[in-house]
Amino acid sequence: MRKISVFGATGSIGESTFDLLMAQGGPAAYDVVALSGGRNVARLAQQARALRADLAVTAFEDCLPALRAALAGSGVEAAAGPHALIEAAHRPADWVMSAIVGAAGLAPGFAALSQGSVLALANKESLVTAGPLLMAEARAHGATILPVDSEHSAIFQGLVGEEISAVERVIITASGGAFRDWPLERLARATVEEASNHPNWNMGQRITIDSASMFNKALEVIEAKEFFGFAPEAIEVLVHPQSIVHSLVGFHDGGLMAHMGVPDMRHAIGYALNWPERMPLPVAKLDLAAIGSLDFRAPDPERFPALRLAREVMEIGGLAGAVFNAAKERALDLFLEKRIGFLDMARLVEAVLSEMSARDGLGKDAHNLDMVLDCDAEARARASAICEQGR
Ligand code: NDP
Ligand code: MG
């Protein structure tokens, strides 16, 4: 039986992964090593019981008593805290889902690679903050990273059987998020509630707001560079409101391979789960006749400064991705706390990036995770300080 661990099991990607594991035989088909969650320990315990996991880990120490109580009599071991997450990721597994949200997902994913497993990577922040380190760790231990982000899964599928040298461009599609048709003046007043409603995809709150600001797409452009090794200028972004075409690969003979499907993350997760095979999945069939037409348009750089910032980050290289992501995470916290407006998020990220890029060595690659995490902490602190000064 395949040994499986799921980090971030209680989140949106985690729940879809849980669904697929249950649909594909549950505890009779998989030997579940570890499941992790955050504050939702009741749900984590339910999942651990249903999948008969060896271990359930909450990221937060103060949640341990509640987790222990919820697991009483189940035989599932309970643990808590960032170190317990890393210890869990070191337990041998053949397939590990990395679906913690934010930079907190970096260290557990990194630890999973060290035991040579397949890492199904939803946590794009890992590649944005520490792409070269992560890819080198995978190579060093013979581990395989499979993309779970729908766009990158689409590109990965489009590349099967192709020579990477024949690829001229990739086109990452973007729905445009909750505010794609809003006038710029109105965006300044957009609320947390308004930004938390994605028109097509049902996702966690943070990535949903990142979709509205296009920070999600900015992270994905960097993710594509780090994962596939494409040159920044070969990576294009195209707004496609229906979210049916998940991305395209363009070859030097002019051909474009588009990956299409309904917007349901269980496709990309299931592809990674069953790779290199394809298995039937509980995903709706796409009815193109019912949809009728598909629209595409270029993203408006004025409305989406995040995309320009992603280009700057790739130009600087090295630790700039860690700064960008951390400043973005802090800006999002401040927006969620209603301390800054929707458009202030990009301004704040740009200010942190410009302060820190003046520093020596930002463009140099990190030698280890600690360098990335230090940079992450400094960027968050600077974002908080700039926000305070502006008040
Ligand atoms: P959610 O917010 O829905 O879930 C996040 C998961 O991480 C939960 O299990 C949560 O626990 C846990 N968690 C929260 N904080 C911490 C922490 N500090 N340390 C450890 N674990 C923590 O996120 P999503 O599922 O939407 O996204 C997960 C990842 O997948 C992100 O990197 C996102 O960018 C990526 N992704 C998501 C897509 C989607 O469709 N949702 C699509 C493509 C990529 P709890 O809820 O118990 O507190
Ligand atoms: Mg995506």
UniProtKB/TrEMBL annotation:
The pathway is: Isoprenoid biosynthesis; isopentenyl diphosphate biosynthesis via DXP pathway; isopentenyl diphosphate from 1-deoxy-D-xylulose 5-phosphate: step 1/6
- From what organism does this protein derive? Thioclava atlantica
Binding, Mn(2+): 149, 151, 220
Q: Which InterPro entries match?
A: DXP_reductoisomerase (IPR003821), DXP_reductoisomerase_C (IPR013644), DXP_reductoisomerase_N (IPR013512), DXPR_C (IPR026877), DXPR_C_sf (IPR036169), NAD(P)-bd_dom_sf (IPR036291)
- Residues binding 1-deoxy-D-xylulose 5-phosphate, per UniProt: 124, 150-151, 175, 198, 211, 216-217, 220
Q: Which UniProt keywords apply?
A: Isomerase, Isoprene biosynthesis, Magnesium, Manganese, Metal-binding, NADP, Oxidoreductase
Q: What name has this protein been given in UniProt? A: 1-deoxy-D-xylulose 5-phosphate reductoisomerase
| Catalytic activities | 2-C-methyl-D-erythritol 4-phosphate + NADP(+) = 1-deoxy-D-xylulose 5-phosphate + NADPH + H(+)
Q: Which top-level enzyme class is recorded in the Swiss-Prot or TrEMBL entry?
A: oxidoreductase
The UniProt record lists the DXP reductoisomerase C-terminal domain at 260-381
What are this entry's molecular-function GO terms?
Answer: 1-deoxy-D-xylulose-5-phosphate reductoisomerase activity; isomerase activity; manganese ion binding; NADPH binding
The entry sums up its family as follows: Belongs to the DXR family.
Cofactor requirements of the protein: Mg(2+); Mn(2+)
Could you confirm whether the keyword Transport appears in this record?
Answer: no
> What's a GO biological-process term for it?
isopentenyl diphosphate biosynthetic process, methylerythritol 4-phosphate pathway involved in terpenoid biosynthetic process
Q: What is its EC number?
A: 1.1.1.267
Which residues are noted in the entry as NADPH-binding?
A: 10-13, 38-40, 123, 125, 204
The residue ranges of the 1-deoxy-D-xylulose 5-phosphate reductoisomerase C-terminal domain are 145-228
Protein role: Catalyzes the NADPH-dependent rearrangement and reduction of 1-deoxy-D-xylulose-5-phosphate (DXP) to 2-C-methyl-D-erythritol 4-phosphate (MEP).
Which SUPFAM superfamilies does the record match to this protein?
A: 1-deoxy-D-xylulose-5-phosphate reductoisomerase, C-terminal domain, Glyceraldehyde-3-phosphate dehydrogenase-like, C-terminal domain, NAD(P)-binding Rossmann-fold domains
